[in-house]
Amino acid sequence: MINIDVKHIAISVMLFVSMKEIFNGIDIINLDGGLVNIFLEWGFSTKGVISLGIITIMGGVLLLIPYTFVWANCLIASKSFLVVFLYLLDSNIKAAFWEFPLLFLIVVMIYFKYPFSKQYKIIKILSCS
Fold it and tell me: Which residues cross the membrane (predicted)?
């Protein structure tokens, strides 16, 4: 019998998404990176882009707090949906599909709940050998 503790996988996914959001937010606030240029091409002002960077950092930080875990996931998902819809309005379907892995990770994180809680789900898989 193999015991797979999904808790460790969920913790690493949560930390990955959190750090990704924090670093992306810092890049957006500093007006670095390709996403900033795309937002400016879509008609966002620099203040709007900076506020989007602040919201991105807030989502990454709130993800680490147990009571705001679901709200942070909703915030990150809504930002990702905004990017997807703007790409689709720009008829850039290929770039819109690059956001779906992050949305999938958010759904997985919400399903498995906050990984540091005591009610965490553990999956046991029977091995055939």
Answer: 48-65, 95-114
